[in-house]
Design a protein that fits this description.
binds adenosine-5'-diphosphate, Replication restart protein PriA, 6-stranded parallel β-sheet, 21 helices, about 725 residues, binds zinc ion, 34 strands
């Protein structure tokens, strides 16, 4: 038996009866010893092993450690008919687990989410529609037949069919018995369409230099990280697609990560136009059947390119030749529950382990990446201007200190005039306000009480569209009260401040002739509806667009020439060290929506602090100087990327108990002091209460070179949290 193409010193073939260590993805799992099965097995094989009364999925991780008496060991039940997990992916999982202090089984779970991996019988037999009619039609049977029909005559496995139709296996088996469904041996999977890398685009100017450098990096192979920096519309995508093309020519596979599922379909269409076929698509919106097919195609090397969300990093590539992380600064790359990891950093890790280049693309890179490029750890390629005739928007501040606005008005006169001029000229204007709902606060005018969530430390936000108050942290809703819940006075409850829905009222009143579109994630029941709205806007079906953060991301609106930021100061409040960086990124991204085609755009920022250094930098001050100043501030404070940080988040139902435990942990800081690390807190976490659980955070700060993970493991290992208390480790927290 071949070792599945896995090379490397640690790969071994085991004879029947040899001791093997098998890693399972069970919550309390670890590498356990088993005896190799009759047919033998090799490192990386997916196997089914007995665990207590159950049979579970596992991966052969290496030789057994021999701690158990051979006579008492159980045997591997069977080896699954799937390509073995390669040494490179195993090493990646192990390193990622060490880095994030995540138990290895939880990491393995990220890599074995491919549905149906465990149900090997389904791998061999497939089902297709048969000639006979069922004797009796039930709802469940109808669903099964409809699911098969929807599959256009293609065969499905039992597991896939049950999942698609939402029925148990017995329903399907009943139909098989009657001949309404035929069972047959699985044909080979349809291959993925081949991409044609030679459908050339002619790069121009800076693009040529950048494209050549990336193509050379791919051709040469080996690890290296490159920051590809260029304003929105400068052609970053065209440039890295050249590198993808080279990767495909070399017969290797390319992975492109995008931060938003909403961006993938536009991207796939673009790749299809360029390479003549669609690449593989991997994210939570893809059907189980397709994901399973893609998983196998990636493992066998038949899928040459994958476009996906962060979880695509855990796919079993056969020969990865390039990773691209587009919009690398995007905060949604950080997974904030379950396993806490930053997909951008993990992409760099995986590239380093498998020895391939990684490209981080952004108009507004994260400070970490900027510094790494500045220090020469990453290469850096710059695209200086927008492609073709498109120019960067003119940016100006509107000093709100000089504006007097009527009650319930947020659009200043200069901004209103600019909007009017654009709309009259048949162009589009975007008003940006990063606040969902109608009003951020509901207050009692009699006593000053602000309505909060019962379970979270958050104010409830009025959503007029839903006619309810909504907690943006846990999603809880309640009716908008007419009587104050605190003082009992009636009729004095009032919305305070603007959300996008309220801004829409002002726009409708002031521009009654304009067609209005509101883009806010909560206004759309489905990703499809959101996509349709975006397409409508792109086609010119709206004059004024009001949007939250979702409009800042990558969409292309050719008619849009004016961006008005309602409150540019919004993100600058608060004490977060990243506030300046985030505000800069967001404002530049939003402004970048203006004037992407022939028409020059304009961005107007309403601000009360026009002289604030961040506002000045956004308005076209020296960008590199801004980054350098930010970096200097972090260096002085010993903060990332110059120092290392980790958060320990403790949560539980009783706030005193959570604080007590955190305090006790903070006192036992000897393991941290040994590496000269400091503990701060306990303090309420950035989200202090969610779904009734109180969250308390300890922040640990260490030198760049300190062995932080080992010290953390020893430190938290000293105290076992009580059963109702949860502890999560957050390496490189997003806010500090
Ligand atoms: P970015 O990724 O930096 O935002 P894109 O790659 O999306 O920029 O390029 C912006 C627009 O310009 C796209 O419509 C793209 O097709 C076009 N474009 C960029 N470079 C070229 C080129 N060399 N030839 C033809 N079109 C280009
Ligand atoms: Zn809540």
């Amino acid at each position: 038996r071949e070792a599945g193409g896995v090379t490397g010193a640690e790969d071994r073939i085991f004879a029947p009866g040899d001791r093997v260590g098998v890693l399972t993805a069970e919550p309390l799992g670890r590498v356990l010893d088993y005896l190799a099965p009759e047919e033998g097995c090799g490192t990386g094989d997916f196997v089914e092993v007995p665990l207590g009364p159950r049979r579970v999925l596992g991966v052969v991780w290496g030789a057994g450690d021999g701690r158990f008496d051979a006579a008492r060991l159980r045997r591997v039940h069977r080896v699954l008919d799937a390509p073995p997990m390669r040494a490179e992916l195993r090493a990646f999982l192990a390193r990622a687990a060490d880095y994030t202090l995540t138990p290895l089984p939880a990491m393995l779970r990220l890599a074995t989410r491919a549905p149906g991996l465990g149900d090997a019988p389904g791998l061999r037999r497939v089902l297709r529609a048969g000639p006979a009619e069922p004797d009796r039609m039930t709802d469940a049977r109808a669903r099964v037949l409809a699911a098969l029909a929807a599959f256009g005559g293609a065969a499905m496995t039992l597991g896939e069919l049950c999942a698609e139709a939402g029925v148990t296996a017995s329903v399907v088996k009943g139909l098989v018995k009657q001949g309404a469904i035929l069972e047959e041996d699985a044909p080979r999977d349809l291959p993925y369409p081949r991409l044609d890398p030679d459908g050339q685009v002619r790069l121009e100017g800076d693009q040529v230099v950048a494209g050549d450098a990336l193509v050379a990096a791919v051709a040469q192979g080996g690890y290296g990280t490159t920051l590809l920096k260029g304003v929105t519309g400068s052609g970053k995508t065209e440039v890295y697609l050249e590198a993808v093309a080279e990767c495909i020519r070399q017969g290797r596979q390319a992975l492109v990560l995008l931060p938003e599922i909403a961006l993938t379909s536009e991207f796939l269409t673009r790749v299809e136009a360029r390479f003549g076929a669609r690449p593989g698509e991997w994210h939570s919106g893809v059907t189980q059947t397709e994901r399973r097919r893609l998983w196998k195609m990636v493992a066998s090397g038949h899928c040459q390119m994958v476009v996906g969300a962060r979880s695509a990093l855990f796919l079993p590539f056969r020969e990865l030749g390039l990773i691209v992380v587009d919009e690398e600064h995007d905060t949604s790359y950080k997974q904030e529950d379950g396993v806490l990891y930053n997909a951008r950093d993990m992409a760099v890790l995986r590239a380093a382990i498998c020895g391939c280049p990684v490209v981080l693309a952004s108009a507004t890179p994260s400070l970490e990446t900027w510094v790494n490029a500045d220090l020469g750890k990453y290469a850096r390629l710059d695209l200086g201007s927008r492609f073709g005739v498109a120019e960067l928007p003119v940016m100006r501040a509107i000093d709100m200190r000089g504006e007097t606005l009527a009650a319930d008005r947020w659009i200043s006169e200069p901004l209103a005039q600019a909007v009017r001029a654009r709309v009259t000229a048949g162009e589009q204007a975007l008003l940006f306000l990063n606040r969902r709902g109608y009003a951020p606060v509901t207050i009692c005018r009699a006593c000053g009480h602000q309505v909060g969530c019962d379970d979270c430390d958050a104010r409830m936000v009025e959503h007029r569209f839903l006619k309810r108050l909504v907690c943006h942290q846990c999603g809880a809703t309640k009716p908008v009260p007419t009587t104050c819940p605190a003082c009992g006075v009636e009729g004095r409850m009032a919305p305070v401040g603007p959300g996008v829905e309220r801004l829409a009222e002002e726009v409708a009143a002031r521009f009654p002739e304009a067609r209005l579109a509101v883009l806010s994630s909560d206004l759309f029941g489905s990703a499809r509806a959101l996509k349709e709205q975006i397409a409508t806007i792109a086609d010119g079906g709206a004059d004024i667009i009001i949007g939250t953060q979702i409009v800042a991301k990558g969409h292309n609106f050719p008619l849009l020439t004016l961006v008005g930021v309602i409150d540019a100061d919004l993100g600058l409040q608060g004490s977060d060290l990243r506030a300046a960086e985030r505000t800069f990124q967001l404002m530049r991204q939003v402004a970048g929506r203006a004037g992407r085609a022939e028409r020059r755009g304009e961005a107007l920022l309403q601000t009360h602090q026009p002289d604030h250094p961040v506002i000045r930098a956004i308005l076209g001050g020296d960008e590199e100087a801004f980054w350098r100043a930010e970096a200097e501030e972090r260096r002085a404070a010993g903060m990332p990327p110059f120092g290392r940080m980790a958060g320990i988040i403790l949560s539980g139902p009783d706030v005193a108990q959570v604080f007590d435990f955190a305090g006790e942990l903070a006192r036992r800081d000897a393991p941290l002091r040994r590496i000269a690390a400091q503990v701060f807190g306990p303090a309420p976490a950035p989200i202090a209460r969610i779904r009734g659980r109180h969250r308390v955070r300890l922040l640990v700060k260490a030198d760049k070179t300190a062995p932080l993970q080992a010290a953390l493991a020893e430190w938290i290992g000293q105290l076992k949290p009580p059963a109702n208390l949860r502890l999560a480790v957050d390496i490189d927290p997003q806010s500090f």
